[in-house]
Amino acid sequence: MHIDIITTLPRLIESPFSDSILKRAQAKGIVTVNVVDLRQYSTNKHRTTDDYAFGGGAGMVMMIEPIDNCIADLKSQRTYDDIIYMSPDGQRFSQAIANELSLKQNLIILCGHYKGVDERVREHLITREISIGDYVLSGGELAAAVVSDAVIRLIPGVLSDETSALSDSFQDNLIAPPVYTRPAEYKGWKVPDVLLSGHASKIEEWRHDQSLERTRQRRPELLK
Ligand code: ADE
What we know:
- The chain is of the alpha/beta class.
- It is built from eight helices and nine strands.
- β8 and β9 form a beta hairpin.
- Bound molecules: adenine.
- Residues 86-88, 112, 131-133, 135-137, 140, 143 line the site of adenine.
């Protein structure tokens, strides 16, 4: 998979990809992440990418021209499955969308800032809009990192234990069961006996029951 992330603040997005699973996924050649500095596509000498809103009002608006030039340049190099705009009024991100995006070859993620982008970008250049929740971030960068992380870890070969993404919370609309490690007893607080029993099918059954019970208590709407 190849992901181009378009931003005016490249440094904001670089560190999540420089560690741990996302770093290894790139080192293994499973995914390439390219952070594109939108300012390079600015047409004015100050390299600005935003301007005042027509009609007045507070907040700057990201201009269409640098974004169009940037996307056109990227498109001349690859064919993209989706051009995603991160926005609080986009489609709510979920594990199902992460699964769907993990099957794509090439993605562009455009990070918004200020009061957002000129609406014509959304009408003509974007194929999909994603929100990571009903709250407003200062920009789309952190949201793009969240989406990229959730997607990349699902690509086969990224996680060393390939089954572990399948046992994640939400993967089957259930919350993951509790986990424990050594010591088996700490300050008198004990690990459930069944997990120490070595009885694989009983452990499996216990985990499933715990998942169901947790989901019922914490997220009953997932069971509907
Ligand atoms: N940009 C600002 N807030 C956002 C959100 N909640 N989701 C995606 N992009 C955003």
